[in-house]
Write a structure and sequence with these properties.
The protein is of the alpha+beta class. It is built from nine helices and five strands, in the order αββββαβααααααα. It is elongated and about 55 Å long.
């Protein structure tokens, strides 16, 4: 399904969001996308012009995982005969807190790969033990990994990644995603980054005091 989405080309959108959109499908190896999410930020002032990003999607994936998803209009049957043909899909406005990390969240819902998700949230690969085991039982490993990040990256870089984790957490809450693996990954990333930031600014005792 992700390969199909990667091969989608959509027609440009004018100032008015259409109810449906024509897309060109270049990969027929799996099910065709059923909808086009028009994602925009809930933080934008109502009086400002909205910045909207389009993401093709399969209704089954999102309806299965997102309890707070807007009602999706019924898609048209989409069976292009060959690659390069057009199909029409309904456009669904999707207002979320952090559109900038929606692609990573969407990919996780398709793949359920914690390692890939953490790879998009942290600046370097995460030791598998931190997400395959209970993080509370591997505190020394977590602290060692956090120290590595603190020695390698600036506090500003760590804050940027903390913002990504917080944004994905807010998106997951807004969409009502109960997936335990997602929350495990977010817990690990949050704990590692906060510990690393405390070490980076020379105040590791802050994490001890809040533990």
């Amino acid at each position: 399904m992700l390969r199909v989405l990667a091969g989608i080309k959509a027609e440009p959108v004018s100032n008015v969001l259409p109810k449906e959109l024509s897309i060109v499908v270049n990969d027929l190896s799996s099910d065709m996308p059923t909808h086009m999410f028009a994602v925009f930020s809930s933080r934008q002032p109502a009086t400002s012009r909205r910045h909207v990003t389009l993401f093709p999607a399969h209704n089954l994936v999102f309806a299965t995982h997102c309890a707070n998803l807007p009602i999706l209009p019924a898609p048209q049957p989409a069976l292009p005969g060959c690659a390069g043909q057009e199909i029409k899909v309904p456009v669904v406005p999707l207002c979320i807190p952090a559109p900038e990390v929606f692609p990573q969240l969407s990919t996780f819902l398709y793949t359920k790969r914690i390692d890939h998700l953490l790879g998009s949230l942290l600046p370097c690969p995460t030791p598998p033990q931190l997400y395959l085991d209970d993080p509370t039982t591997v505190v020394p490993l977590l602290e060692k990994f956090a120290q590595k990040l603190a020695q390698t990256y600036t506090a500003q870089a760590l804050l940027m990644h903390i913002g990504r984790v917080h944004g994905m957490w807010r998106n997951a809450v807004a969409l009502g995603i109960p997936d335990e693996r997602l929350w495990c990954a977010l817990d690990v990333a949050w704990e590692v980054l906060l510990t690393s930031l405390a070490m980076s600014i020379g105040k590791p005792h802050l994490m001890t005091e809040t533990a």
